[in-house]
Amino acid sequence: MPEGKNLEGGCQMNKLTLTILTFILVLTFSITLASADVTQLLCLKKGETAEFSKCNPSISDYVCKRTSCQTCVIKKDAGHYCPASQNACNSLGLSCSLLNDTGGTTEVDGDAPNISLFSPIQGEVYPSRSVILNLDIDELATVHYLDNINGRGRWTRVCKDCNEYSRKRSFNEGLNDITIMAEDLTGNIVYEDLSFYIDSKSPKIKRTEPRKGFASGLFEVQFTEENPASLILQYGSFFTGMNEAPLNLEECSIGGTTTSCSAEVNLSSYSGQKIQYWFMLEDMAGSQVISKAVELKVDTQFPVINSINYTIDRRKFG
Amino acid sequence: MKNLYTILVLSLLVVSIIPAAFATSIGSGIGVDIITEDFEPIVWMCDNRIVVDDDVQWGRVSKGDQGMMERMNNYAFEGERVSWNVLVMDKNGVEKIQDVFATIGPTQGIGNDIEVNCQRTTGSQEIPSSCNARILEEQISTFNSDTMEYYTCTLTVETAESMQGEYWVTVEAMDMDGLSGTMDENEYWFLNPMIALSIDGDLLFEDVRAGTSSYSDTLLIGNDAEPSSGVMLDMFISGTDFYDSMSSGAMCPTTNQLGLDRFAYFATNGAYSTANDAETDSTDPKPINEGIYDVSTNRDRDAEGYVNIQRGDHFDRSMYYEAEIIQSGFQQEGPGPAGYYRGNLLAPGAEMALTFRLDLPEPCNGDFDTGDIYFWGEAI
Questions:
Q1: DSSP string of B29-42?
Q2: Average pLDDT of each block of 10 consecutive residues along chain A (318 residues)?
Q3: Using the beta-carbon criterion (under 8 Å), do B195 and A154 form an inter-chain contact?
Q4: pLDDT band per the 50, 70, 90 thresholds, residue B85
Q5: CB contact under 8 A, B160 and A70
Q6: Nearest by CB to A157, which of B165, B233, B369?
Q7: What pLDDT band is residue B306 in, cutting at 50, 70 and 90?
Q8: Residue A58: helix, strand or coil by DSSP?
């Protein structure tokens, strides 16, 4: 029986505790509801409006007409703002709060910014390492880019709290694979991938063959260029006319930094004449180089024995 | 028999006189009709109004719950109190004074909304000259408790939801006949004015070469409080160190931090500038200020007139005499903002121009985009 009494006493104790806790919870909840007004240091960007008229129709709305503005407000339970003394925010050591969807004209921004990228263009080849980075964003954002090839995870800042950017930036030679990131003021982020080429080095023709003597129709060229776009052999004479023969770059052989190509053309129409030839090389960035013109005689004819003069000095050999 | 004759003679005499008396009462008489003037109560303001702080965040001169000596213009914020001592007179007697109250409204004089009742108090028997008590040419110097009473009226500014904008404020007395009078000195107050700081321009240092000094574009820091509010702002500046938010391998010059001490600014405000900065840097124990606001940073003006920035990310009273934007034009005593730097005050619509200089150390690498320079404005 004593155990039963103890059990009953424990139940009563639990009920009492439960009642007290419930009372405290209700009281706390009530206090929370009653004190929902919050003092905020409202930071605005140019053009944003704090609609104080929702607090009191006799109060004019405050429109930020400068780059940025800050005003101390009391955010009411209903969501609208009422003006407060700047000193109230100072005393609380407040930092910036942004507009909400009821007290100002800016709605809660849950959308990532949109980037309109004008330069560099996807897949384009640029002849200089300095390329204009030109982009627009549909809202204020901080923009960074990451070099996915050589960046080692380091983001480079393009601009802060901007909605446009157009300045030259230096990129790496060759393929550039970058990711552009824009983060708006409320933390929404958008990424955009982009790849393009930089080919700032002009192509060089190191050697052509034949260099002197006769031309048989076989021509060779050696050049240095990482991104050749076209290679053309031009040959001919002023009397007979000029011809050109594009080379298939895929048939060229690469040895180190040097590429060797050859072309075989029919020079029969120039036989017996003097011709000039040169190679014209263009890279992906549009840079061209022309080799030195070489003058050669053309001899495509096999030698013909017209007559043989002979004398017999013996009848028998051996 | 002799007595009988005497009585008869006297009776005849009396009878002969009575008709004459009856004849007089028949003539026209003068009626007495005295109507006492319904005296319109008169209210005299004794001395001037006093503004008392709300004891939430008091200024550098007046402590909480004290009269704000620095409040020069007629504006007040929620919780602040405006008090008047008044002398009310009703020649019909003090018992006829029904109510004495402070009113606010769009017109001066009687009839505005009643905001607060005044409290009856005691005063000196000799009316203070500050009351300027007079009725036409008659100057009243002696207190008459039968017709006069002293009152104290304290108007506490309510929230902006019910009190915002410009109002005529006065004390009004009403008697039992419904007559009212107000003090002659109506006051025009801006209650709960909207205050804002505006910043025009960006603080941007681009492509700064390590080991060199760079100068920013000039920023404008403005008092964007409501026009005609008269709110004077006392301006302050503080900042933090700067960091590179990206994994960029920053170092400047020994770690991935660009110290605030690398920044300095030059500020001008009308005739005042940091070129004549007082370089006041209060040290502990601070007689007025409480708390410690980076006593390790000594305010310093260099040969160019550029001043270093105090370290801090919040406002507190220890910023006084240490983190003002311009310490120039110190006002020793009133009238006016005694204890303040005149060059550091901004009236509504006024701006001060700040140019920043960055002395980038060498070596230095990184994009230091995380960190802040704060501007603070305190309504005085």
A1: P---------PPPE
A2: 42 62 53 65 87 87 87 87 87 78 53 90 89 90 89 83 88 90 84 90 89 86 89 88 90 89 87 88 88 86 81 69
A3: no
A4: very high
A5: no
A6: B369
A7: very high
A8: coil
Structure tokens at B318: 């220890």
Question: Which residues share a beta bridge with A180?
Answer: A145, A192
Residues present in chain A in total: 318
CA angle, B343 then B348 then B350, to 5°: 50
Residue B164 at interface with chain A, using a CB cutoff of 8 Å: yes
Query: What do you get for the CA distance between the two ends of chain A, in Å?
Result: 149
The whole-angstrom separation of Cα A222 and Cα A244 is 18
Closest CA to B164 of A43, A84, A79: A84
The helix (run of H) or strand (run of E) holding residue B269 is strand B263-269
User: Containing H/E element for A21?
Assistant: helix A2-34
Which residues does chain A have within 8 Å of residue B217's beta carbon, measured at their own beta carbons?
none
User: What is the number of residues in chain B?
Assistant: 380
- State chain B's mean pLDDT as an integer: 85
Q: In the block, which residue shows the tokens 């052509």?
A: A208
Q: Which of B78, B198, B248 sits opposite A154 (nearest CB)?
A: B248
Contacts of A160 in chain B (CB under 8 A): 204, 369
DSSP class of residue A52? G
Residues 320-379 of B with CB under 8 A from A: 367, 369, 376-379
User: Residue B247's closest chain A neighbor by CA?
Assistant: A154
DSSP state of A237: E
Residue B53's φ and ψ, nearest 5 degrees, are -65, 160
User: For residue B79, how many other CB atoms are within 10 A of its CB?
Assistant: 16
Burial class of A201 by CB neighbour count within 10 A (0 to 12, 13 to 18, 19+): middle
Taking CB atoms and an 8 Å cutoff, what residues of chain B touch A87?
Answer: 56-57, 59, 77, 378-379
A56–B367 CB contact, under 8 Å: no
